[in-house]
Amino acid sequence: MIERLSARRSASTWDFPVQVGRVQLRNPVMASSGTYGYGLEYRRYGDPRRLGALIVKSLTVEPRAGHPPPRVTLLDEPGSMLNAVGVPNPGVVHWGERILPEMLEAGAPVVASVWGLSAEDVVAAAELLSPYRGPLAWEVNLSCPNSEHGETPVSHDPESAAAVCRAIRELAPDDVGVWAKLSPDAPDVPSVAAACHAAGADAVTVSNTYPAAAVGLTTATRLGGGAGGMSGPVLRRYVEPLLDKLAASESPVPVLACGGVVSSEIAVAYLDRGATAVQVGTASLYDPRACHKIARGVVRRLKERA
Amino acid sequence: MTAVLVNGLRVAAALVARPTLWPTAVALLVRLTPSPWDRRGPLPSRTYLSYRGQAVYGMPLSLIPPEDVIRYLQWCRSFPGPVR
Ligand SMILES: Cc1cc2nc3c(=O)[nH]c(=O)nc-3n(C[C@H](O)[C@H](O)[C@H](O)COP(=O)(O)O)c2cc1C
After folding, report:
1. Burial A267-305 (b: 16+ CB within 10 A, else e)
2. Do A118 and A109 touch, CB atoms closer than 8 A?
3. Cβ contacts of residue A51 below 8 Å, gap of 6+?
4. Cα–Cα distances in Å, from A181 out to A13, A15, A65, A210?
5. Which of A19, A4, A7 has its CA nearest to residue A47?
6. Is the CB of residue A153 less than 8 Å away from at least one CB of chain B?
7. Span from the CA of A287 to the centroid of ligand 1 (angstroms)
8. Chain A: residue nearest B83 by CA?
9. Which of B82, B70, B66, B81 is nearest to B22 (CA)?
10. Burial of A261 (0-12, 13-18, 19+ CB in 10 A)
């Protein structure tokens, strides 16, 4: 009886289903890649089943140790940071064999994330991912150099981004979504988004961190990996106008808004700007319960309106 | 082990010298405390702490130098929170 009551209460607290392309999520709040580990690390601070999705740290073909410390510089802009972590991860195969089963056993709504040192490398990581069943979607981290065009990131070039999305859509099972994660500094984000969508991506994540070197008058300017990416509330000034542009474009693409979501109020403001769902990143490094608190707040606010 | 102990003492000394950060440190401890009905007790999750140290600092949390701990607490103090 008590179990049934608490299940019903839990359903009302966490359920506000949203459709992202071919997958339905329990609610529109997810943990963003690289800030929530593989979910299991956060398990004592919240049941992963309550989140809309849990996007894992980006995975590569081979394991990576990441950049030497220091990996982060905390910015003077409240709640913001600059990181040059260097994508440390155990590699797709180790993750698929050892970590994914544990995540699935915990009932986590898993989304895999793939990255590489070139466009070919990202596709190769997705190829290694294809035998593993369970992830709801694959997020493609397009912030990587494009080997054909030198150091220009794939995420800056609509054609290269579309080519990667097309190849990955072919590799992904039919019931698994493909989400393209874009960079906020691309010269024309809406064109990249439209190209990814036309190439088979169900949604675009806007956005990754903003490339930068250490800034700020009182902040130490050291990072083991050199330049890095800014995250936290500082990103809102880039993400907000991008959401407006994407909402105004002729064939809107489902958008997963990411950047500076530190409260349910900001999350709902992003949804109001046309996003289908939101991702929480840096806030989880301040409070391990951030995703759950924001998910609960968003569901409550959306239900009050409905 | 000695390195961990020495670093712990240096962090403690740095904290003692900055009473304005004590409320922030207490608030951090509260955030890191698992729910009261967690079977494994009230101490912060070791799995989480070691993940945080490795993922963000590239080293065990127990070896993070005092200046980084202080900087993190200052960052927490200015965080546009509480998260809800
Ligand atoms: C420490 C750290 C590690 C990250 N690692 C990844 C990663 O592996 N893959 C990825 O796609 N994004 C990664 N990101 C970017 C976040 O997923 C997110 O896009 C970005 O931080 C903006 O959201 P936020 O302002 O809420 O943090 C990382 C961010 C941080 C702060």
Report:
1. bbbbbebbbbbbbbbbbbbbbbbbbbbbbbbbbbbbeee
2. no
3. A26, A27, A29, A30, A31, A108, A109, A291, A292, A295
4. 29, 25, 22, 13
5. A7
6. no
7. 15
8. A263
9. B70
10. buried
**Orientation angle between helical segments B66-77 and B22-32, nearest 10 degrees:** 90
Q: Alpha-carbon torsion A80, A82, A85, A91, what sign?
A: positive
Return the residue matching tokens 């990181």: A83
- Angle (CA) B70 B76 B82, round 5°: 160
Cβ separation B75–A81 shorter than 8 A: yes
Average pLDDT over residues B25-32: 96
The residue type found at A91 is: G
Assess contact for A301 and A269: CB atoms under 8 A.
no
Banded pLDDT at A11 (limits 50, 70, 90): low
Please state the atom number of ligand 1 nearest to the C-alpha of residue B56. Answer: 1
Question: From CA A279, how far away is CA A300, in angstroms rounded?
Answer: 17
C-alpha to C-alpha distances, A139 to A34, A49, A184, B42, nearest whole angstrom: 12, 19, 16, 35
A193 CA distance to ligand 1 middle (Å): 19
A72 bridge partner residues? A83
pLDDT tens for A179-196 read 999 999 999 999 999 999
**Which pLDDT does position A1 carry in this prediction?**
47
Q: Can A165 be counted among the known catalytic residues?
A: no
Question: Phi and psi of A74, rounded to 5°?
Answer: -85, 125
Which residues partner with A83 through β-bridges? A72, A229
Please, are residues A262 and A283 in contact by the beta-carbon 8 Å criterion?
yes
Q: SS3 of A279, please? A: strand
pLDDT at A223: 80
What residue has token string 């403001």?
A: A269
Q: Model-level pTM? A: 0.95
Distance CA A21, CA B41 (A): 41
Q: Are strands A53-55 and A110-114 parallel, antiparallel or unpaired?
A: parallel
